[in-house]
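Morning!

This is the sequence you dropped in the shared folder:
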Amino acid sequence: MVPFAGWTLPLHYGQGHLQSHLHTRRHCSLFDVSHMLQTLVYGRDRIRFMESLVVGDIAELKPGQGTLTLLTNEKGGITDDLIVTNTSENYLYVVSNAACADKDLAILRDRAAQLQATGSDVHLEVSDNALLALQGSPSMARVLQAGLSDDLAKLSFMNSISTTVFGVPGCRVTRCGYTGEDGVEISVPALRAVELAEQLLGVPDVWLAGLAARDSLRLEAGLCL
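The structure's back. Tokens below.
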């Protein structure tokens, strides 16, 4: 276990780093990424609010579609990278990095207050959901589909749905992840996160993976770290 952005995270589990890395490539692995900041943005001016802070074209996102974008400071410099999803439930779902969570949230809240002072309708809610990432091209879709009523084949990359996963309602499944593999991130009510994790780990193909494999997989795939 190692300290990371105020959290204690598992560097690796019993199988070790190398075995975990290779297992993700050959089968699939479950990563607990609940340290990521999840923010919900409500209000009729939510898109204008978000576009005043990021470089992405949020207005053009279809319902359920997300984009990787950059959060900028007042001078246009990069503060963080994050994913913004235009949900079908009339709010924006924003996932940003744990190491930047405090400064990201301060920027979001400050900008929201500025717009609210001029009569804009926007407000923020920090989600207390856990976030589980199931990653691995050979097995992920088969493992997850067994617990979904929705057709995972219709969920394309960077798209998101609100659904029930293995009997746990109120989950948001987004087809994304930074291992270089096909995968999903599942935002799940915190009180049922262990239950869902145990359901997924009941499949022999699924191993737990820690911070070391998450970093090395991203580096191997040539993704930002």
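Headline: The first strand starts at residue 2 and ends at 4.

More detail when I'm at my desk.
O.
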